[in-house]
Amino acid sequence: MKVYHYTKPSNLTQIKNEGLSPMNYDFIFTLLSPKPLEWIENPIFPKFSEMFKLMYLKEYSLLEIELNSDDIKSAFVRDAAHKMKYERVFKYDPNTFPSQYNYSSEREALDKMKKTMVPLPFYLTHAKDLNYCIPEILLTKLISSEKIKIIS
């Protein structure tokens, strides 16, 4: 199975030499496709979609990561939409923010997002039922450079 990760071009040499590690974060954030529809044409979060198209698709390098069965078993998916109100870069109007994601505190939003976290194999078989607005795949293990291909 392949997943995709965007990174700053300045990170490529280190990734080629050392792979990708969740050490700086709790996870390596990845996507199921290079340009997931939920990310590039999201009607609920148009500012997010616009930022993704302007920033990630133009300024970042795209990596393709080949996951083996152990990587898949240790990966998770969550709905990142729950944290959008508190992503300071978007500056959403609280009066027009989608009610299903309009939490009174950042802690509440992060708790709700955490509750959406499911194992990747479960997500793959239940994606339609889960109906995540902004699915984000979370890798928990070091990904060796041999499993990584630079696409752009």
Blueprint (SSEs and pairs):
Layout lengths: L1 E6 L4 H7 L9 E3 L6 H4 L5 H14 L1 E6 L2 H5 L2 E4 L26 H10 L2 E2 H11 L4 E5 L8 E3 L2
Antiparallel strand pairs: 1-3, 2-6, 3-7, 4-5, 4-6
Quickly list its features.
152 residues; three-stranded antiparallel sheet; single chain; 7 strands; alpha+beta; 19% strand; four-stranded antiparallel sheet
- Major β-sheet strand ordering: 2-6-4-5
Question: Overall 3D geometry?
Answer: globular
Count of discrete alpha- or pi-helical segments spanning 4 or more residues: 6
- Spell the H/E element sequence: EHEHHEHEHEHEE
Question: Which bin fits the share of residues in helices?
Answer: 25-40%
Give the radius of gyration: 16 Å
> In oligomeric terms, what are we looking at?
single chain
Structure classification:
alpha+beta
Q: What is the total tally of β strands?
A: 7
User: Mind describing the biggest β-sheet?
Assistant: 4 strands, antiparallel
**What is the terminal-to-terminal distance?**
19 Å
What count of structural domains? 1
Model regions low in confidence, pLDDT < 50 over at least 5 residues: none
Strand content: 15-25%
Polypeptide structure, described:
With 152 residues, the protein is an alpha+beta fold. It has one domain. The chain is built from six helices and seven strands. The protein has helices at residues 12-18, 37-40, 46-59, 69-73, 106-115, 120-130; strands spanning 2-7, 28-30, 61-66, 76-79, 118-119, 135-139, 148-150. The strands form two sheets. The protein has a four-stranded antiparallel beta sheet with strand order 2-6-4-5. It has a three-stranded antiparallel beta sheet with strand order 1-3-7. The radius of gyration is 16 Å and the shape is globular. The model has no long low-confidence stretch (mean pLDDT 92).
